[in-house]
Specification:
Radius of gyration: 25 Å
Largest sheet: 8 strands, mixed
Strand order of the largest sheet: 3-9-8-7-4-5-6-10
CATH superfamily of the largest domain: Endonuclease Chain A
Number of helices: 9
Strand content: 15-25%
Oligomer: single chain
């Protein structure tokens, strides 16, 4: 990740980025000198430095004039993480305080409105493909208790779910991935898949994987299916070759019977229509 990407993560504005970047190079200086070096207007520089100091990225050295000194790059990242943690804890505490009155006010309304929903309407809801669908997929990994099953062409989105996958494995969740055989992939997807398989072997050796010898009509992730139909959730995307990913939607279901059916499909392909070793 480049400097701009890190500054994006730190949520710094244009002037804050310029000031912090220059301070890290200068080490210690006054506000007027920094304004001249960065082009930040003198009317704004004190507010910019105050903002950086409030976040713990810059130390204010008393004197006439005041001087400003950056913390080390490592300390800046540590402060940013701590700031975010404290903000989250405050947010969670606020939610906790609001939970009971919110549930009392809206719980009965929701129950009354839900009485008119037909069972078929409860089978699915949809999210856009992209960050929304990847966010829902990560949620499934985090909430899985026993197993995760994945059907995918090349698992190209592994980067997006890797921390969630690692967390699931650490909790003892069993993870199996059914990939599409390379003979059904484009040259570009073959390269991606080969890199993903190598990464799985190196970083996630507990993950089982096989390669479907036939095309997969749908792709997705399902968790904790049972043949009693009392648990299970899934997100899936049907194959639509002529529809760009940006225009597709992924379906999410919490219907235990449907998820059990998806698991049965997964098992049949896994056991009877796939190969274990990576095709040469």
């Amino acid at each position: 990740m480049d400097d701009a990407g890190v500054f994006d993560l730190l949520d710094l504005g244009e002037y804050e980025r310029a000031a912090l970047s220059e301070l890290l190079a200068l080490g210690r200086t006054t506000a007027p000198n920094l304004a001249e070096a960065t082009g930040v207007p003198k009317a704004r520089i004190y507010g910019v430095l105050e903002s950086l100091a409030d976040r713990g990225f810059v130390k204010v050295i008393p004197g006439r004039p005041k001087e400003y000194q950056p913390r080390s790059p490592e300390a800046i990242l540590d402060r940013a993480a701590e700031n975010r943690r404290q903000a989250f804890e405050a947010f969670r505490a606020d939610l906790g305080s609001a939970r009971e009155p919110f549930l009392e006010a809206f719980g009965p309304r929701f129950e009354a409105a839900s009485e008119d929903i037909r069972p078929a309407e409860e089978l699915f809801y949809v999210v856009d493909v992209g960050e929304p669908s990847e966010r829902e997929t990560r949620r499934l990994y985090h909430e899985a208790e026993e197993r995760v099953n994945v059907l995918t062409k090349s698992f190209a989105y592994l980067d997006s779910v890797a921390p969630s996958l690692a967390d699931a494995l650490d909790r003892g969740v069993e993870v199996d991935v059914l990939l599409l055989h390379p003979e059904h992939l484009s040259a570009e997807n073959c390269e991606v898949q080969a890199e993903v398989v190598e990464r799985i072997d190196e970083e996630f050796p507990a993950v089982g994987y096989r390669f479907s010898e036939e095309k997969l009509p749908w792709r997705g992730t399902l968790i904790d299916p049972t043949m009693e139909y009392d648990t299970g959730r899934a997100i899936l995307l049907v194959e639509e070759k002529d529809v760009p990913l940006s225009m597709r939607q992924a379906a999410i279901t919490e219907n235990g019977s449907f998820v059990a059916g998806l698991k049965r499909y997964f098992d049949l392909v896994w056991e009877h229509d796939s190969v274990e070793s990576y095709p040469e």
